[in-house]
Design goal:
With 427 residues, the protein is an alpha/beta fold. The chain has 16 helices and 19 strands.
Length: 427
């Protein structure tokens, strides 16, 4: 049985603030750099993106799309929708990833749902209806589609979000909750957090990048084993015999922008323990803090960490008492390079130069982060970055957790070590 790495949740250049480089040609280059075998297309309902997809891709006979240029990368039709609806006096917003088997399914979905949204807008299609009703309409138009709630702990846009507080999938999706076979953990949580919530028992846990720019591809992804086909993917999502989920690779959750509680305007971040003793209001302005994914999980969790009997073997984290796919915590290469040289800016020519040099020698980022020996790493990326990767693999790093839309900050080296590297005049 073959293994393949999949990043199912991405966006195109036709979605909101996405980079113009989220084109098919650029995605092919970056998927190869990252070591991804299967990409979601994202945004398949947008007419401009659909035109670009059909221009550059052909059907491969398995329900996936293949590049006309002969690349081995495969694409599966995906899109993200959001349902906006009232719960009493509050307004809920739930984001859903959906798949489609072919262009006929896409056309049926577009026709059935067009009266409720504007697919030509360069934004995530928004539906003013309960999430359960949206799922029902999707599956009525395209029975072979799969609907996956995404970034499930995000405060303002997810099924367990703290802003409106569903405590179960049944509470959110009602009679169609049995059609929710899988969920996406999101950048601010990981399977270990989700294992503590029995409401997720029986659902497959996926990880994906939600990328809006090429270098964010595969910051999280899911590993499958079995048939690289739409039918195989469906079996994995449903937990049927055949293709299976082997595990997920997770960007360290503390780096996510909604891990801790906090208030962005006042640059205040609080842990659940601090919030418990100090209250849920910002100590600077007294506005309510945004409750992050970690505390929200603790509020819903009905299992203690010791109930899971968690162990780590060769970097993979698993539960001894639950037969579930393991996961591995990792940090994207460009963040490791930036932390090695003390670069804080989002864009850096130094980071780009070192990153491009590392992945230009027929070696993928996936191999660099997870597979290569320290000796090979030193040859490929230099002694300093190799040491940074080794420390991340071993868990020797510090993170100031993200909060209220602010990403976490990574530190791998002590200040004196970083200062020494800066003096080497690599800039």
């Amino acid at each position: 049985m073959s293994q393949f790495a999949a990043d199912l949740h991405i966006h195109s250049r036709f979605c909101g603030l996405s980079s113009l480089q989220m084109s098919v040609s650029d995605l092919l280059v970056w998927a190869q750099r990252k070591g991804i075998d299967l990409l979601g297309t994202g945004d398949f309902t947008h007419p401009g993106w659909l035109e670009e997809l059909t221009e550059h891709l052909d059907w491969d006979g398995s329900g996936f799309l293949r590049p006309k240029n002969g690349s081995g990368i495969r694409f599966v039709l995906t899109a993200e929708f959001k349902a906006v609806f009232a719960i009493g006096e509050r307004q809920a917003e739930v984001h859903l990833l959906l798949t489609a088997r072919d262009l006929e399914d896409v056309e049926r979905l577009r026709k059935r749902l067009a009266p409720s949204t504007d697919f030509s807008l360069e934004a995530i299609p928004t539906f003013q209806m309960p999430a359960a009703e949206l799922v029902e309409r999707i599956l009525s138009a395209s029975p072979e589609s799969y609907v996956i709630p995404v970034h499930i702990w995000s405060p303002c846009s997810a099924v367990y979000g703290s802003k409106f507080g569903f405590h179960s999938l049944q509470e959110c999706f009602g009679s169609v909750s049995n059609q929710i076979h899988a969920v996406e953990t999101g950048l601010s949580s990981d399977p270990g957090m989700c294992w503590r919530v029995s409401d997720l028992d029986g659902r497959r846990l996926l990880s994906a990048s939600d990328a809006h720019e090429p270098r964010s591809l595969a910051r999280e992804y899911t590993l499958f084993e079995g048939e690289l086909s739409y039918g195989g993917l469906g079996k994995a999502l449903k937990g049927l015999p055949g293709t299976i989920i082997k595990g997920t690779v997770e960007q360290v959750s503390e780096l996510g922008s909604h891990f801790f509680n906090g208030h962005r305007e006042c640059q205040i971040a609080k842990s659940p323990i601090e919030t418990h003793f100090e209250g849920r209001r910002c100590p600077a302005c007294r506005k309510e803090l945004t409750i992050g994914s970690f505390q929200r999980m603790l509020e819903i969790a009905d299992r203690a960490p010791e109930d899971l009997d968690i162990t780590e073997e060769r970097g993979w984290i698993r539960s001894r008492c639950r037969n579930l796919p393991p996961f591995r915590r990792m940090i994207p290469l460009h963040l490791i390079i930036a932390a090695t040289y003390g670069v804080r800016a989002r864009e850096s020519q130094t980071v780009d130069r070192l990153y491009n040099a590392a992945v230009s020698a027929d070696t993928t980022e996936r191999q660099i982060l997870l597979e290569l020996s320290e000796t090979d790493l030193q040859t490929l990326v230099g002694q300093q970055v190799a040491e940074g990767i080794a420390r991340v693999r071993e868990g020797y790093f510090r993170i100031s957790p993200g909060y209220d839309g602010v990403c976490g900050q990574l530190e791998i080296f002590e200040e004196s070590e970083t200062a020494e590297l800066l003096q080497m005049k690599l800039f």
